[in-house]
Amino acid sequence: MASLVFSSTSASPVALRGRPKLAIGVAQPQSGAGHVSVRGKDRKARPFITRAVAVGKKVSRFDDVAMAPPDPILGVSEAFRACTNELKLNLGVGAYRTEDLQPYVLNVVKKAEKLMLEKGDNKEYLPIEGLAAFNKATAELLLGADNRAIQSQRVATVQGLSGTGSLRLAAAFINRYCPNSKVLISSPTWGNHKNIFNDAGVPWSEYGYYDPKTVGLDFEGMIADIKAAPSGSFILLHGCAHNPTGIDPTPEQWTKIADVLEEKGHTPFFDVAYQGFASGSLDEDAHAVRLFVERGFEVFVAQSYSKNLGLYSERIGAINVVCSSSDVANRVKSQLKRLARPMYSNPPVHGARIVANVVGDPNLFSEWKAEMEEMAGRIKSVRKRLYDNLSQKDKSGKDWSFILKQIGMFSFTGLNTSQSGNMTNKWHVYMTKDGRISLAGLSLAKCEYLADAIIDSYHNVN
Ligand code: PLA
């Protein structure tokens, strides 16, 4: 089918200023804004042919497609790549860099890949639900191998296209099977959550989370909003290392959150994108999820191996639905598979094999834990250095200690949109407009420069 049409009804081609004349083109419906048959229905054709005649310009049926704005997070990396200033620093996307600011492939990943090559694994399709060894490993990593929900086969696990794809699959499930429920997301949250639920047609609203006055958790607001939500809502919670704030509830606060969810008959929906990356311990970072499972909730959990195994581009993660019985889990899993099949058919195998090999081999597993601690440790040390530099250099008396209290990859600086703009325009520090910086992309050597940029932006820009 022709996607470009040319004037076909005009007697003579119209010359565009300075451009060659257009050829008389492909035959199209002759009646101007006529009718075309689309899947048996008569639909009114767009009047683009008429316009083409009027201006004599080559037109596309996609003329009305507007330019999409750059992605607020991944668009920052594009802008960074285009910048030629040698001082430039990319603190936009949450991607781990070495002290030399180079991407890092974990040694355990290289070892697992070597083993895979030696074994000569084939490239056959995976089942729709993914690699069995991966699904087993990922649920055990999340809940603990001896978890009763796993032992009683109450967990429906489906390999997903990393965290994002797993969240999207769960959102499609909610849309199909809980069509009258809404999802509550924290304010603020990872920017893509809203896109995911919007595209899946799941209504959402926000619950209070961040208190700008204390640069801490607005626990009262959070509880009040969760209480006020219609019973049976899904409450999206960040399992650990809340993005973008870096502020997590304490264990006592998690217990209270669970009380309210129980009272209201809400379903917890965890996004676990940073297990092991927040504290350096896989078990510690799974505390909240395990608490809810232990208390008998049915729980959704999306997992990602982008950060903790550095498998960003392998797109490996999972959606787990902890159900009240193995029978329900079987049915839920069958429907997740049914949703996945027309979307992407079945998931990619490479990352799944890496995870299964690393978790399944005791030596590689302990090596992984050591590497993860090292990565988490490097982030903690730049966090400390940045705080030291800010406190020493800023003579205004401002308290920067909130930076030390935040955990995970990010720091939420409290800089507003124009201050963040100054960071980029004047200092070539690329970051998201919400004031978030990825400490995983910062080196000790660059902390002082960053502190100067923050102090200037904070005090000299409104
Ligand atoms: N959930 C949260 C809370 C995240 O922060 C991210 C990634 C994901 C899910 C999805 O990651 P995945 O699909 O790669 O598994 N957030 C990043 C990258 C690190 C991004 O925006 O895609 C971020 O910079 O916020």
The number of helices is: 17
Q: Give the helix proportion (percent range).
A: 40-55%
* Strand segment tally: 17
Percent of residues in beta strands?
A: 5-15%
Shape: globular
From the alpha carbons, calculate the radius of gyration and give it in angstroms: 26 Å
Give the N-terminus to C-terminus distance in angstroms. 54 Å
Q: Brief description of this entry?
A:
With 462 residues, the protein is α/β, with parallel strands linked by helices. 42% of the residues lie in helices and 15% in strands.
Task: Output the keywords.
single chain, 462 residues, alpha/beta, 7-stranded mixed sheet, two-stranded antiparallel ribbon, 42% helix, globular, disordered N terminus, binds ligand PLA
Structural overview:
The protein has 462 residues and is an alpha/beta fold. 42% of the residues lie in helices and 15% in strands. The protein contains 17 helices and 17 strands. Strands 6-14-13-12-11-7-8 form a 7-stranded mixed sheet, sandwiched between helices. A two-stranded antiparallel ribbon has the order 1-4. Helix 7 links the parallel strand 7 and strand 8. Helix 3 packs across helix 13. The longest helix is centred in the C-terminal third of the chain and has 32 residues. It is globular and about 65 Å long. The N terminus is likely disordered. The site of ligand PLA has 16 residues, from helix 6.
